[in-house]
Amino acid sequence: PAGTVHDAWSGPNTTVRLMQPANNTDFEVEAKFDGPLDAAFQSQGIMVQQDMYSFLRFEFLREPANLTIYAASILAGAPTERYHVNIPNVFPIRLRVKRQGNAWTQSYSTNGTTWTPAASFTQNLVVTEIGPFFGNAGSPTPSFTSQLDYFFLTADPIVPEDGGTSIDTIPPVLTKIKTTPYSAGFGISWITNEPATGLVEYGLTTGYELGFVEHSDLRTSHVFTVTAL
Description:
Layout: E1 16-17, E2 20-21, E3 27-33, E4 42-51, E5 54-62, E6 67-75, E7 78-87, E8 93-100, E9 103-109, E10 116-122, E11 129-136, E12 148-153, E13 174-182, E14 185-202, E15 211-226
Antiparallel strand pairs: 1-11, 2-11, 3-8, 3-12, 4-5, 4-11, 5-6, 6-7, 8-9, 9-10, 13-14, 14-15
């Protein structure tokens, strides 16, 4: 709401946060923010926490005239700015935070394909929690409604995302397989549990040297007749 500061700097951490337990290991996380930052000083990003007084904040921060990508460390309640650079005010926008030992890197992307490096620094932190956060500050303090699309480990992403399609690697299950012999051929049919193409190869040996019949359209009922054998 307007008029109330939600910030994480020198005082208590009053940002709105969606934190979850995290292992103290290497990782890379990504968040996508759909909604714009249209007033100073609104912010949204990723927080990596040791405890309530020691944490790292990686974020998009709106200043009066510019959108910035920002990073800071707060250790035992003492804040240190790590990165602060103007970037194009384009949404949706994505944020990545990567940890390798005590090395932390931040990057951002407006299309999910090309990533621009931002903060890079070394900091010892015993990670216990991680998650997206949202804030507003300044005088007067603006209201802020954030639109978070997703937050995930890049090693375990959400697929499909935003109506995309994933690659189906599970083959269809064939049931009700039926064969019918004829004097110079045969018929064969089956049902699949999902729409699929169909192919029957045949021959006198396992080389199936006599040919094949097929259909390339997707269907669940498959019927073939082979003649002139």
